[in-house]
Design goal:
This protein has 135 residues and is α+β, with helices and mostly antiparallel strands. Helices cover 25% and strands 39% of the residues. It has a single domain, classed as Hotdog Thioesterase (Thiol Ester Dehydrase, Chain A). The protein starts with 9 loop residues before the first strand and ends with a helix.
Length: 135
Amino acid sequence: MKQSLTAGVSATRRFRVDEERTIDFMGEECRVYATPSLVRDMEHTCRDLILDSADSGEDSVGFKVSIAHKAPTLLGMEVAITATVAEVDGSRIVFDVSASDPVDTICAGKHERFVVDVEKTRQRLKSKAAKARQA
């Protein structure tokens, strides 16, 4: 990983809350941004920030998410998600994350990711798959 990923570096991505990102269990009039979709979009924002500084063959995996989803965002609204590097500890990257729509701050929290070597990860997963077949 390049040295350009340091505490304070941040990125903001914008998403439109489409139907796929919403809950549907309370009916059409109550479609709002689903927490799992918010977490996925936050993870992608953090991952993209890491990829800007990753060396060839590197990627990242998320391993910890701690957020408070404080306000609903309606279907069709735009969301801005900001990821700011809070700490770099070797291959572990800690982010402060927040999200807002035009009306509210909808979320705040932390997300942690590990930078990994893609080929080593592939080999580790192949090994686990072999063990699973034997189980």
